[in-house]
Amino acid sequence: MLGIKRSLLVSIWFMFLTFPLLVIRVNTVENTVDWRFMNMLYVGVGSFFLSFVWRYLMERRARGGGRSGGQGAGSVMQRVLGEKRIFYPIAAVVALAALSFPLFSDAYQTNVMISTLLYVMLGLGLNIVVGLAGLLDLGYVAFYAVGAYAYALLNQHFGLGFWTVLPLGGLLGAVCGVLLGFPVLRLRGDYLAIVTLGFGEIIRLVLENWGDFTHGPSGIANIPRPGLFGMDLSIHDAAIYIYYIVFGMVLVTIFVVNRLKNSRIGRAWLALKEDEIACQAMGIDKAKTKLTAFALGSTWAGFAGVIFAAKTTFINPACFTFLESALILSIVVLGGMGSITGVIVGALVIVVLPESLRDFPQFRMLLFGAILVLMMIFRPQGFISTERKKYEYHGAADETPAEGE
After folding, report:
1. 106-378: CATH class
2. Contact 162, 226 (CB under 8 A)
């Protein structure tokens, strides 16, 4: 009963605040005033309903119901993904649907899915740095820009093709990751985030002001798309071809990141994330572990940058702002730090949801921001939280004693 009274007060307060804007409309042509009292009724009913639901969810969370429910849903998802007899059929159906998607969709939908898959690559790469190693990187878009400009400039000045520059873009991204890693070996937390943010801005400003080399704000146009045995592809066919290239790269990324996660270096990253001092005390080379995380994470950003330049055929420094880094970090955090499946789900939500709401331009970003706020309150561990693995050593159960003992 108390919750209903409070929600009623909230609705009255919202109606009072929005009365001058939504109810009164002055017609300056006819010098009349239109009173739209139905808008006030809509605001009152809507604010009452939202306030009541919000209070119910917060009380449920305070009692532990929301949190346990979220963990229960996450544990169910983890059990489903852990069961091979369930996971493999689901993965096969998803793979078949993804392979046949461009054959039954138009050019616009294909381009949206290409962007989604690119963000999956970027999210998985940043997941190595942030999700596994626990190093907050706010300048990840810099490596993305390095890969894109590597393809554009090498093609323009030396005539190198897409397939030649693709590994070079990843290599240049790794080199830049190591160059960033050296100055920040002793930093962590907010200080590390500020330095990486500064690095991303330095790269963007260099690309914007070094006009003789990067063409400055004008950017680089007429970047060739990937070739297919010398055939001339139409724009739609080229989009389909790039879609399958990105899809193959995503599969390679998932395989590599999964293997790295369960490898010796992956366990070192997890130890570094949990406790840096204890990690170093156990004999793990902290500098080598951090540099490896930066190098491998930025490699996939370099790959994605090359594909992005080939997809858009035009790049300029405005394509690589801090907002892109924040978007990629949102994918990792919302999906679930350290979770490969969570990053994929996060990329689908972050990229596809705003595109689906494009018909509602006034409310698109409002709904998007509301979803982010609700996720941070009721599901802070992400859509699919990573499962904490335990590594145990079991010696021989029955040791046969030596003769003479």
Report:
1. mainly alpha
2. yes
